[in-house]
């Protein structure tokens, strides 16, 4: 499973053989391919296992990607399970962040991400 942080435009991934509930609704995907939609016409396409896909836009609920010169989109929940990062490709993850629990008046606030250099002890 991949993280959104590495899904930056230009990064290349390969479709894997994993089964994803989001990608295989009602068993209509017997080839275990990545189900996607054409951006030109609302037509469902199967992207075969082993195909390289290039990210076009950073994902939100859906992600746009290219296969060759054609652009497709699919839902992020299925995409993140059905693709793997290609080995040797540089991770383009923003600065490392760590999750800390912050307390105010003895009560915990929501966990948030902070850059390590921004945390101060008082």
Helix content: under 10%
- Shape descriptor: elongated
The fraction of residues assigned to DSSP E strands is 35-45%
The ordered H/E elements are EEEEEEHEEEEE
| Cα gyration radius (Å) | 18 Å
**If you consult CATH, what is the topology of the domain at 4-85?**
SH3 type barrels
Output the strand order for the largest sheet: 3-2-6-5-4-1-7
Count the DSSP helices: 1
Report, as a whole number of angstroms, the end-to-end distance: 39 Å
CATH class membership of the domain at 4-85: Mainly Beta
Query: How is the biggest beta sheet arranged?
Result: 7 strands, antiparallel
**Unreliable segments of 5+ consecutive residues:** none
Mean pLDDT: 77
CATH architecture of the domain at 4-85: Roll
What does this protein look like?
The protein is mainly beta and about 120 residues long. The chain has a domain at about 5-85: SH3 type barrels, CATH 2.30.30. About 5% of the residues lie in helices and about 35% in strands. It is built from 1 helix and 11 strands, in the order E-E-E-E-E-E-H-E-E-E-E-E. It has one helix at about 75-80; strands spanning about 10-15, 35-40, 45, 50-55, 60-65, 70-75, 85, 95-100, 105, 105-110, 110-115. It has a 7-stranded antiparallel β-sheet, covered by helices on one side. It has a two-stranded antiparallel ribbon with strand order 8-11. A hairpin with a 2-residue loop joins strand 5 (about 60-65) and strand 6. The radius of gyration is 18 Å and the shape is elongated.
């Amino acid at each position: 499973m991949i993280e959104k942080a590495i899904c930056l435009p230009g990064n290349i991934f390969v479709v894997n053989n994993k089964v994803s509930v989001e990608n295989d609704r009602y068993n209509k995907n017997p080839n275990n391919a990545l189900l996607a939609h054409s951006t030109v016409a609302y037509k469902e396409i199967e992207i075969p296992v082993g195909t390289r896909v290039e990210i076009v836009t950073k994902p939100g609920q859906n992600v746009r990607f290219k296969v060759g010169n054609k652009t497709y989109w699919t839902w992020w929940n299925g995409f993140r399970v059905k693709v793997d990062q290609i080995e040797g490709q540089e991770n383009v993850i923003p600065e490392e962040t760590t999750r800390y629990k912050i307390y105010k008046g003895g009560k915990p606030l929501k966990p948030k991400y902070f850059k390590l250099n921004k945390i101060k002890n008082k």
